[in-house]
Amino acid sequence: MKPLAIYSALIAGVTTLALVTGCNSAQSDPTASFPPPPTVTVAPVEVREIVEYDNFTARLDAPEVVEVRPRVSGYLTEVRIKSGELVKQGDTLFVIDPRSKQAVFDRTDAEFKRAEVRLDNANREAKRANALFASKAISIEEADQRRWAFTDAQAALQAAEANRQTARLDLEYCTVRAAIDGRVSRALVTLGNNVSGVDGFTTLLTTLVSVDPIYAYSDVDEASLLKFRRLLREGHLATNEQGQVVVDLGLADDTGYPRQGFIESIDNRLNPGTGSILVRSQFANTDGRLLPGMFARVRLPGSARRSALLIHETAVGTDQNQKFVLTLTSSNTAAYRPVTLGGTIDQKRVVRSGLQAGESVIVNGLLRVQPGMRVTPQSKDASNPTARR
Question: For the chain, how many structural domains are there in total?
Fold first, then answer.
């Protein structure tokens, strides 16, 4: 063999030996082939005294709704409302031309005064007739006629008073006033138009709705109703000073349920088509944010106050139809734990079964971890996670 060939063979052998040695070294060092454990945020299972709630969609409506219509016919001479403004009971909303009604009242007032004079004269004639008849100065027929004239004058005065009172009311009705405190809609009839006050054909001028308080109507299913009635019988529901069951309400842009009210009434029968019953709750509306027709979220108490386990929403995973969490073991590995959950309390889920107080669950980084995987835990308040799963 030539020297060059021998040298090449030696180099190849050394290279092969070096590669084999390097591979063996890599296999013997576990840190060279496995990444470090993922960092996750963990939080303990919280124990808290809670009340579970049943959530429903509600429709808001005003306790009082008034269609403002005239009681007399005529031409509008004043429109004193602005669309959407608040008015007080008795405020003037519209004015109908009062001149014709004033003339009728003046005529009936004059007729009433004339009837008063006639009654006074008839009264004197009746008294004189009694004296003359006693002295045989007049016949009984003439005395009776004077007495009948007095009775007729009394009836005429009553009729004149009734006509004057009707004319006075028509004159007052020329000023259309607010029947309740509330908020008006826009004016549906403008200045100068003729409006009708004839029964059955009255003109709608505007609408007026009360503002504070306001009602919330919710359709409650039968199962929730039965649970609610049982808790009410057992005295487990929170009530206000008047003994009314407390409920909470939130609008679409509210966080949680910032408004507190009470159940005002429950309907007397279930709707057989939907299997639900109408529950009416009452809420204060001093700031005017609650408008009739709005939709809102209402929660009714669904349990007695009790101790419960809570975990953050971000700790919950879904495995087909099974909810689960990953708990942290003593060796810092993730353990799969199926759980049964209840309702939501302050963005945390109630745990009915599957966990115990004091255990730690992974609240962030859930998608980066598999059961049995070793992790690097970081303690974090579960109510304020900063990372996403």
Answer: 3
